[in-house]
Amino acid sequence: MALDAQSNWNVEMAQPLKIPTCPSSQRPIQELPSTVPAIIPSHSGREVLLPSEIISHILSYIPRRENTQSTFWACSLVSRAWYSASIALLYNRPYLNGGNFSEFVRTVCPSKNAHIRQSTLAVLVRKLDMGELVHNASRSLTARLLGRLKGNIEEFVAPQASFAINSFAALSKCTKLRHLDLSLISASISNKLLFQTLKSLRELETLFFPRSSSHDQEHNTGVAYFWPPKLYALHLAGGVDSHFLRTHLVNAPPSLQRLSIQHCSQVFRPALVDMLQTLGPQLQHLTIRHPMQQLWVGALDPVLDECPSLTALRISADFVSDKMFSALYVQSPHPLRILDIECSPTAGADVGVSASAIYDAVEDGRLPDLRSVRVSAHLAWGATEGTRTDASDLEEILEEAEMERPLGVVTGVWWSMPD
């Protein structure tokens, strides 16, 4: 993608670089205010002025996907007015890959020198996803790119290989960030450095923790890290251990309602249960996925009891059993609506959750709001006539509950969910 502030019709994204010209003047078209109307011919031969509001309304029908990026590029070549209306949509969320990344960088970072006037198009970028870039950028280039976009960027997905320590200084200045995904980073990242950066991201709502986070030398100080005050969704993986859960995660803000934990080989059951006892009452969505080697079948049976406000739960059958739905752990009506049960490929014969156990919980009024149940094919709910009957009975009671008291949730039972 190359579109430069001096020749604003250089709007290439996913195609070879072109320099379009104005059909009427054959000269490069400069950037114009969005109030300039488009001029189109009518059947009578008279020109009709098309207001910019109409053009914007037309463009709103184009889905914002990778395969429509070239459509917005083409729209920007129609006229000055179409350019003004489509250019912001084109740069709002650029889809970057190895073929267009270099041109995109030359557009928003025309020079390494800070005193060089920045591109006027850099301010249009709100979402920067570098997740598909592996060896296309250097660490210094990623830091420079964040530095140029810091005033407006709201979402950022870090690349695997070109994000390192020198990028954190620039990241800390992106104070408008609402979504931050560091899950792909391969370099070992200090938790202390990460949380020093998070201090300035006070608008952050969603955080994907780096899977390669490392333990700090101050591991045993017991001083809790500061979390962004508006944090709503947190996804943990990799280097997170029991100490992190007990010391830092329990200090999460009251705004946290969605939590995901997976691939944490150093998280033990006592720390996980302690954390759920603290944060469980505020959680509405919870995901605990395999592999987590320190957990066993039935280890997390009390999860619904510890999280009385959950409306959606995704959990591995490797960590629960039918007792999870018994009166022992679900003693009062629970608001759970969506239940996804996965299963690891290495699960043993003792791993299994039955449809009949869930049916009993719904029938007895312990899960009156449950509407959607999806389970892994490894649980073999469709293997025999008896298990298929149990699944059909469960689906029937869920549909009846939705008819009597609609909650707007897609209702059904699916027993072939991929893991």
TrEMBL record:
Q: Which InterPro entries match?
A: F-box-like_dom_sf (IPR036047), F-box_dom (IPR001810), LRR_dom_sf (IPR032675)
Domain F-box residue range list: 50-96
The record's section on Pfam families has: F-box-like (PF12937)
Name of the protein described by the UniProt record: F-box domain-containing protein
Which species does this protein come from?
Answer: Hyaloscypha bicolor E
